[in-house]
Amino acid sequence: MKLYSANSPLSPAILRSRARFLTSCSVSTSQSQEDLSVSPIPEPYLKLDEFGSTVNDPRSALNYFKWAEKQRGFVRGVDALCILLHILTKSRRIQAAHFLLNRHVSGNSSPSASVLIDRLLDTSQKCSSDSRVFNYVVHSFIEAGRIEDAAECFDRLIESGNIPGIRTRNALLTALVKANMMQKARVLFEEMVVRGFDCDCFTLDMIMHACFKEEKPEDAVKYFREMRSNGMEMDATAYNTVIRAVCKKPDSRAACEFWKK
């Protein structure tokens, strides 16, 4: 379905109907009825049943969203953004979804992390969305340098039962360590272990580096032993890191033990 044409004006009725795709937009109450042919007035609640063909047409949905953003009276709403993200992710328009997220997350008027995640969770029930959209949100906050917001998103996703993938978990752990947020990094790692989430050697190496930054190499050894006892297959990097840790104590006996491995 073609949502608009630059050469053919939209009637007020079509604008009202299609504007349901956007949310939380407003205009002055004194605006005349004639102005409706120029500026869409999106209604506060999205009705997806009226946009069935649009949900299956990501290009048209994205084009309409971009067009609507430029119209007089448009106020960016969270639900419209969330619905579009679901549409793009479900149709595997990953680059478009990622670009859209990065633009909104890094903007001055971007929604708070809690609001964005809550609305994404709510609208996902209407869209039969792909769960990868939640991973993209966490990554976007990380890339924007909003690490605490990324951690808040992660916590809300865990509470809702939407578990971010291991790449997202590792990216958040790395960001926390680089930002010297060691306590939060430890909490994240220990929660992953307690909940039985998959961890890999990268996960372990990062938390051991956090221990080095805190000058607690003995904790790095402790984490290594725990993960090995849980059945993790260690790689050369993990062994090199733990050998560095025991040498800082120093503990030549433990170093020889790990060296033989």
TrEMBL record:
Lineage of the organism: Eukaryota, Viridiplantae, Streptophyta, Embryophyta, Tracheophyta
NCBIfam families registered for this protein in UniProt: PPR
GO molecular function annotations of the record: mRNA binding
Swiss-Prot/TrEMBL keywords: Repeat
Species: Stephania cephalantha
Protein name, UniProt field: Pentatricopeptide repeat-containing protein
Superkingdom of the source species: Eukaryota
PPR repeat start and end residues: 130-164, 165-199, 200-234
Protein's UniProt keywords contain DNA-binding: no
Any matching Pfam family: PPR
